[in-house]
Write a structure and sequence with these properties.
504 residues, mainly alpha, 2 strands, globular, transmembrane helix, Phosphate transporter, membrane, phosphate transport
């Protein structure tokens, strides 16, 4: 039946309403970001006060706010992505939990003093006065923010630490020459490109294989779950207790090795004892098929995700505002870089709120890449990724290995994805590793060429890790340091010229 003129007019009105709402949202997001950035500038101006270099501090507050937005949009997604991809958390729920925990970690446990990035990367003999040092920090900060912003737009998880390191290297070289940089430190960072994902992926795959063997592949899943899930929850509680004490709270508390070990044992027993009755009740109430086994891991996964966010906010807020703290210190003292600098509360507020706002406004794109576009996640796999991230950081810290939290999380997702692919394709011949004639003739699964083609097509359908995403992410990792260095060098020259013209 043909639609009446009134029905057509109503449809047009509904379409216009949807278009207006979409347009309103597209303007609201950058509008809220601009309001936050202006607030960061005002807070910097009111908190620092007057002085010959106060205008640079105000501009640096703006850049710090911009960097904090990008840290929230990119880094935090690594913690949230697996939980969202497994459907253990909705996107809105993940954003709310992460925003609160990241901001709380940054403001409560961000610490009073941080070591400056410049002290680690720039040789002590390098002579930089206060103004030039501030320009180096500002240009490196801006370059890191822009590069991370581009990565966010493309949905690529990159390391903001590496972006800032690249920025400092580029600006230091253009300002004071090649000898200004500690190249051995940069070499350790390059090594982390391999160490971080390899450790994260290996530990996550090992955890997943263990859970599959002990619970998922057992005939009596209910009995296996009652026996082993509380032990896994206890392990998670133990690892995260030690992780928070050694990493998340390290700027405000130093309990020592014995205290950390005692806390690990204590929280293992608490986690085991608390989870036992809950797991026992759930295993009696529902049929223990694969889906219900997965659901047993939802509460510990949500808990782990929240703790990862708190620790990230406490530990990585220095990525967002550490250079701002160094700039404030240099502007106040009228001198170049210091070994350690004070981290004022107003600087922590810019970092903590910026991370939370950036996550809420711009985080969903990277969250979807990490949680959905690399490989399919469920609750058990996401639990393995979260637990692997904490274990990897603990192991790396114990051996003094440089690691990246971004690379660890993404490497863990690669690990569980490739393990699934290996197990799924077990027994199917792979023509890529043997000659075509041998593949067609010798395999008992390939009695005819047609059967060989069918097996090949079956293997192709079972590629459970998207190669395009893997290659894109690895390429972004490799390009981050040189790209940020180049951008920073350009910005440093431009800022130096601008300041010279202004003061002339």
């Amino acid at each position: 039946m043909a639609k009446s003129a009134l029905d057509k007019d109503l449809e047009k009105v509904a379409q216009l309403k949807k278009a207006a709402q979409s347009t309103g949202r597209s303007f609201a997001v950058p509008g809220l970001a601009i309001v936050f950035l202006l607030g960061a500038m005002v807070l910097g101006a009111l908190s620092f006060g007057s002085g010959p270099l106060s205008y640079l501090v105000i501009l640096a507050s703006l850049i710090a706010g911009y960097m904090a937005l990008n840290v929230g949009a990119n880094d935090v997604a690594n913690n949230m992505g697996p939980a969202v991809g497994s459907r253990a958390l909705t996107l809105a729920g993940a954003l709310a939990i992460a925003a609160v925990c990241e901001a709380a970690g940054a403001i409560i446990a961000g610490g009073n003093v941080v070591g400056t990035i410049s002290h680690n990367l720039v040789n002590p003999g390098t002579v930089l006065d206060a103004k030039n040092f501030i320009l180096v920090m500002m240009s490196s900060f801006l370059a890191a923010g822009i590069w991370t912003h581009l990565a966010n737009f493309l949905g690529a998880p990159v390391s903001t630490t590496h972006a800032i390191v690249g920025g400092v290297v580029g600006a230091a070289v253009i300002s004071a020459g090649v000898s200004a940089v500690h190249w051995s430190v940069l070499g350790a960072i390059v090594a982390s490109w391999v160490i971080s994902p390899a450790l994260g992926g290996g530990i996550a795959a090992l955890l997943l294989a263990l859970i599959d063997r002990l619970i998922v592949e057992r005939a009596d899943k209910a009995a296996a779950a009652r026996r082993f899930v509380p032990l896994l929850v206890g392990l998670m509680a133990s690892v995260f207790a030690m992780y928070l004490m050694t990493e998340g709270l390290k700027r405000i508390w130093h309990p020592g090795f014995a205290g950390v070990l005692a806390a690990g044992v204590g929280f293992f027993l608490i986690g085991w004892a608390v989870s036992r009755p809950w797991v026992a009740a759930r295993s009696q109430d529902v049929a223990m098929n694969g889906k219900s086994v997965n659901r047993l891991f939802v509460p510990p996964l949500i808990f782990a995700t929240a703790l990862l966010s708190f620790a990230h906010g406490a530990n990585d807020v220095a990525n967002a505002v550490g250079p701002l703290a160094a700039i404030v210190d240099a502007a106040s003292a009228g001198s170049g870089p210091s070994d350690t600098v004070a981290l004022p509360l107003w600087v922590l507020v810019i970092g903590g709120l910026g991370i939370a706002v950036g996550l809420a406004l711009f985080g969903p794109r990277v969250i979807r890449t990490v949680g959905e576009k690399i490989t399919r996640m469920n609750e058990i796999r996401a639990f393995c990724v979260a637990l692997s991230a904490a274990i990897t950081v603990l192991v790396a810290s114990a051996f003094g290995l440089p690691v990246s939290s971004t690379h660890i999380a993404v490497g863990a997702i690669f690990g569980v994805g490739f393990l699934r692919e290996f197990k799924t394709n077990r027994g199917i011949p792979n023509p890529a590793v043997q000659p075509r004639s041998t593949f067609l003739k010798t395999s008992h699964l390939n009695r005819t060429p047609r059967e060989a083609v069918e097996n090949f097509q079956k293997r192709e359908r079972r590629r459970l890790v998207r190669r395009r995403q893997v290659l894109g992410i690895v390429a972004a990792w490799l390009v981050t340091v040189p790209a940020a260095a180049l951008l920073s060098a350009v910005f440093c020259v431009m800022m130096s010229l601008a300041v010279a013209v202004t003061l002339a």
